[in-house]
């Protein structure tokens, strides 16, 4: 649906607002309705409302009577907040979400497919501080798909006729 790209370094003002640069807003094609939620890596996810609805549809498939599934849905939905950009392309970041992601003043907005990730600048730089050889090994592991090996079909012993018997 979306293919957001780029890294944008932003500052949080004293009212917990960020102003999105014009170059970034061009990727939105007039969209101004979003959802910010907790992500798995101590950052925040910033979804266009349509992409968030897809996340919600997946969460609806989880069984509320299974603790792990209930906990996961609660984590993702907890703190999720709808935001609407004002005419200057600004939005207010929820304080609890900022605390979760350790965002105080400097943040990076990272385009990642159908969403943007919001990272505290220091946390983001630490995450990216990976040895090139380690990154090469990671890339090899993640990007190399093992060829699927076809397994021989299981034979039903009741219909198999042994060879050599008459």
Automatic annotation (TrEMBL):
Any one of the GO CC terms: cytoplasm
Ranges where the SpoVT-AbrB domain occurs: 7-51, 80-123
Top-rank lineage group of the source organism: Bacteria
InterPro entries: MraZ, MraZ_C, MraZ_dom, MraZ_N, MraZ_sf, SpoVT-AbrB_dom, SpoVT-AbrB_sf
Keyword Cytoplasm belongs to the record: yes
CDD domains in alphabetical order: MraZ_C (cd16321), MraZ_N (cd16320)
Compartment(s): Cytoplasm, Nucleoid
Any one biological process term the GO annotation gives: negative regulation of DNA-templated transcription initiation
Location (main, coarse): cytoplasm
Keywords per UniProt: Cytoplasm, DNA-binding, Repeat, Transcription, Transcription regulation
Family to which the UniProt record says this protein belongs: Belongs to the MraZ family.
NCBIfam families: division/cell wall cluster transcriptional repressor MraZ
Name of protein: Transcriptional regulator MraZ
The species this protein was found in: Ignatzschineria cameli
